[in-house]
Design a protein that fits this description.
There is one protein chain. The protein has 527 residues and is an all-alpha fold. Helices cover 74% and strands 1% of the residues. A two-stranded antiparallel ribbon has the order 1-2. Helix 12 (273-294) packs antiparallel against helix 13 (301-322). The longest helix is centred in the middle third of the chain and has 32 residues, at 325-356. It is globular, with a radius of gyration of 23 Å.
Length: 527
């Protein structure tokens, strides 16, 4: 192979956004190594600038006519671009809200930023990986960085405990996922690219072994998106981890998990659509019920948001199961909305814990009288998570439920509506705690609430991240139609999904997607 052919096959420009993040990571690492603690004044802005440049590079790649790169191991198609954009935005806002938290803990900010950028890099590659080795390496880059970040507060026993639990459960999950993809490799005769695997499996009849592989792969994916019953790590890790890390895991890691789910299940398991639809239906039902019901009994804000995150994963799976243009677009739109309303909520929790040293819900009693800004921002974020109009979360759920209803998922949509009402109760409970309490019913933390000052190092970036998240939460609802159109364009511009949607449009109207798959299994249609 000559050099010109090699360059064409590599098509390295597709990973320019990841290249920018990698260079930024190295610069932050070197800056911290050379300048020491004095680098804390500028390394966060260097990291933030690198992420913004990466975001610009992703925008430039939106109409990339040749997205396949590295001999088919990575694709920069529109679906990949939009998921990578969500991950980069979540990392950028996480950096804004974490500077003061890390500085106050007395740990190294440079190391924190380096590991966070490594996790971002792994999540970005995972969103576009189309080859088994690339998928696993990307997944492990994200996972190992997440373990390190979870235990970053080395002097905090809760952080150490959370990291140990996350490491043990995560290692088991990675082993299960690896066994599933190794079965795919063997059944396909040694193929590693997802498209080639699907083509080989279509020509053979190994349904039992393929079903076993599917079960293991779904287990690994479900761990990443915190779906029940693979959610056990979530509450403990959320409660013990540094709060900014929880914010990133709840959005960036979840987005990467859903990107992986779409790509590997739709591409590599077209013959088992009925089976993985059934499994994900069960995961969605369990996640919506357990996540929202158990959240009612929580006394810690971080645990409440952990169970809320589990419930939100159940809602997003409705769009995934719909398998239509509207379904995939509603998934993307809701993840974009979830980015702002969830990080806005965590920014408020960080600010409150910095000033009071606690995250107990009861300690928020009377907060409005001492800190109206945090009260307003947290209230808007929580109400948006609950789906109260006209905030962004309402439109996100509206698109998800409407896509599910059009696809015939009536039971899931009704369950989603019921559990959404349940979620509104525990969100409103926190808002009531902050706003309605009389002066004599203030908590001890609020009575001793410090004088509000934004002059301390790291608080201005925190305020910027908080205001950005809350303003976006309020305005995205108004801009929901053009944003949903962009999400739909991302689906239609992705060859993997557009070919599926064409086949779905041609199916008989009287047949459901699942029954059509059963009648036409040999045609390898993925819904």
């Amino acid at each position: 192979m000559d050099s010109a052919t090699l360059v064409t096959q590599l098509n390295a420009g597709t990973i320019a956004p990841e290249g920018v993040v990698l260079v930024t990571l190295l610069l932050v690492l070197l800056g911290d190594l050379i300048a020491g603690r004095s680098s804390m004044r500028w390394t966060p802005y260097l990291a933030l600038g690198g992420l913004l440049v990466s975001l610009v590079a992703l925008v430039v790649q939106w109409d990339n006519g040749d997205p396949v790169s590295f001999f088919g191991g990575f694709t920069g198609d529109a679906l990949s671009v939009i998921f990578r954009g969500i991950i980069v935005l979540s990392a950028a806002i996480t950096i804004l809200i974490s500077v003061r938290y890390v500085e106050q803990s007395g740990t190294s900010l440079g190391e924190f930023l380096t590991i966070l950028l490594a996790a971002t890099l792994g999540a970005m590659f995972l969103s576009g990986a189309t080859e088994l080795v690339t998928i696993f390496v990307s997944l492990e880059t994200l996972s190992i960085s997440s373990y390190l970040l979870t235990g970053y507060m080395k002097r905090d026993p809760r952080s150490n405990e959370a990291a140990l639990k996350y490491l043990l459960i995560g290692a088991a999950s990675s082993a299960i996922f690896l066994y599933g993809v190794s079965l795919l490799y063997g059944l396909s005769g040694g193929e590693t690219q997802l498209g080639a695997i699907a083509a080989q499996l279509q020509a053979t009849n190994q349904s039992l072994a393929l079903t076993i592989s599917l079960v293991f792969v779904i287990a690994g994916v479900a761990f990443k998106i915190s779906a029940v019953p693979f959610h056990q790590w979530t509450p403990d890790v959320y409660e013990g981890s540094p709060t900014p890390i929880v914010a990133f895991l709840s959005v960036g890691s979840k987005a990467a998990g859903f990107a992986l789910a779409i790509r590997i299940l739709v591409t590599a398991f077209p013959a088992l659509v009925e089976e993985w639809h059934f499994v994900f239906t069960a995961l969605a039902i369990l996640s919506m019920i357990l996540g929202n019901v158990v959240a009612l009994a929580q006394t810690s804000m971080k645990r409440l948001l952990a169970y809320s995150s589990i419930g939100q994963a159940g809602f997003i799976m409705i769009g995934f199961l719909a398998g239509t243009e509207a379904g995939y677009a509603s998934m993307i739109f809701y993840l974009f909305v979830y980015l702002f309303m969830n990080l806005g909520g965590f920014a408020c929790v960080i600010l409150f814990s910095l000033r009071t040293g606690t995250d107990q819900i009861s300690e928020y009693a009377g907060l409005y009288q001492k800190d109206p800004l945090v009260t307003l921002c947290l209230s808007l974020s929580l109400l948006s998570l609950g789906g109260i109009p006209p905030l962004a979360g309402f439109f996100g759920k509206l698109y998800l439920f409407w896509a599910g209803w059009q696809a015939g998922l009536y039971g899931l949509v009704l369950l989603g509506l019921i559990t959404s009402v349940i979620s509104i109760y525990y969100y409103i409970r926190v808002v009531k705690m902050m706003v309605v309490k009389e002066p004599q019913e203030m908590s001890t933390a609020i009575e001793n609430y410090p004088t509000i000052s934004w002059t301390l190092p790291g608080l201005k970036p925190l305020r910027a991240g908080l205001v950005l998240s809350v303003v976006a939460t309020a305005l995205v609802g108004i801009l929901s139609n053009p944003l949903f159109t962009i999400a739909s364009q991302a689906v239609l511009k992705t060859p993997m999904l557009s070919s599926v949607l064409v086949q779905v449009a041609a199916q008989p109207e009287h047949l459901s997607p699942v029954s059509y798959q059963q009648d036409n299994r040999g045609e390898s249609i993925a819904l």
